[in-house]
Amino acid sequence: MKKSGEKRVFKRRPVTSGSRRGGRKVEIPEGLWTKCESPACGQVIFNQQLEENLRVCPACGHHFALGARARVAALVDEGSFDECDRALRAVDSLGFPNYGARLGVEHGSRETPEAVICGTAEIGGHAVSLAVMDFTFLGGSMGSAVGEKIARAVERAESGRRALVIVSASGGARMHEGCFSLMQMAKISGALQRLAAARQPFISVLTNPTTGGVTASFATLGDLIIAEPGAMIGFAGPRVIRETTHQELPEGFQTAEFLLERGLVDRIVPRRELRGSIGTFLGYLARGG
Ligand SMILES: [Zn+2]
C-alpha cells in the first residue's frame, strides 16, 4: 500500500531523437521507430512495420529508399534469384582524391559491393535478367563496374532469351571516374539496341531518385517505363535548370506523376504491386513477341 503523502518519482528515460506533436514533445528511442520523410505526413512508424510494408509509409504511401537486396527479394519469385558478376567492382583508375579509400571502406563493409546487383530470376514465372541499383552505395552512381554489370545483364537477356528488368536508383554518372563513367551510357545503350533487334522486351523501373546519366541513357529506353509513386526523375536538378533557363518550373516538375501526364512514364505502380504488375506485363510482351 502506498503511504499517504509519499511522492512517486518518475525518471525521464534517456533519448536520442524526438518530435513534437500537438505542442507536446514526443520522444522517439532511436532504432525502433522512423518518422515519415514526407513533410505533409510526419507519421512515426515502427521500424518492423515499415520493413514489412516494403518501406512504404502505411499512413501516406510515401516510398522510402529500399536497398537492392530487399528490392530483389520483393520483386522476384521466391528462391529464383541467381546472382551474377558479384565480384565485379570499381577501381580508382584515375587516382581521384579519396575515391580509392572510399571504395575500400564501401567494399569492405557491405553485403552489396557495388551500386548495382545483377542476376537471373523469374518474375511471375517469366525468365528475366535483372539489374537492381542501390542508391546507398555512392548515391547509386554509375562507374565503370556498374556500367559493365548492367551491360552484361543486357547481354545475358539477349543470349538467354530472357526479358530484361532494370530497377534504377541513381544520382547519375560517377564523377570520380570521369570519361570511363560517361562511356557506360553509350555502352549500355548499344547493348540495348542489340536486345531490341533480338526482340527481347525491356522493362525499366524508375525509383526515387533516377537522375543524370542513368536517366539520359538506359533508364528511359525501356519498352515499358514504370515508376514508383512520387519518384524524382530528371537529368539535371531543378535548381540548375531554373538558373540555366531563367524560368519558374511548373508544380510537380520531375515527379513520376508529372512525367506520366507528359508521356515519359507509362505507368505508376506502388511498390507492393510491382511484382504482380511486371509479371502481367511480361505475359503480354511474351505473347506479342
Ligand atoms: Zn507518411
- Bound molecule types: zinc ion
* CATH C-level class of the largest domain: Alpha Beta
Low-confidence stretches: none
Q: What is the CATH-assigned architecture of the largest domain?
A: Alpha-Beta Complex
CATH fold description of the largest domain:
2-enoyl-CoA Hydratase, Chain A, domain 1
CATH superfamily of the largest domain: 2-enoyl-CoA Hydratase, Chain A, domain 1
Task: For the record, give the distance between the C-alpha atoms at the N and C termini, rounded to a whole number.
Answer: 80 Å
The helix content, as a percent range, equals 25-40%
**How many separate structural domains?**
2
Q: Which structural category fits the helices and strands?
A: alpha/beta
Which key features would you list for this structure?
alpha/beta, globular, 289 residues
Could you characterize what this model shows?
With 289 residues, the chain is of the alpha/beta class. The protein folds into two domains: 45 residues, no CATH class; 224 residues, Alpha-Beta Complex (2-enoyl-CoA Hydratase, Chain A, domain 1), CATH 3.90.226. It is 33% helix and 20% strand. The protein is built from nine helices and eleven strands. Strands 5-6-7-8-9-10-11 form a seven-stranded mixed sheet, with helices on both faces. Strands 1-2 form a two-stranded antiparallel ribbon. Strands 3-4 form a two-stranded antiparallel sheet. α4 packs parallel to α5. The longest helix is centred in the middle third of the chain and has 20 residues. The chain is globular and about 75 Å long. The chain starts with 16 loop residues before the first strand and ends with a helix. 37% of the residues are buried. The mean pLDDT is 90. The structure holds zinc ion. The site of zinc ion (ZN) has 8 residues, from loops.
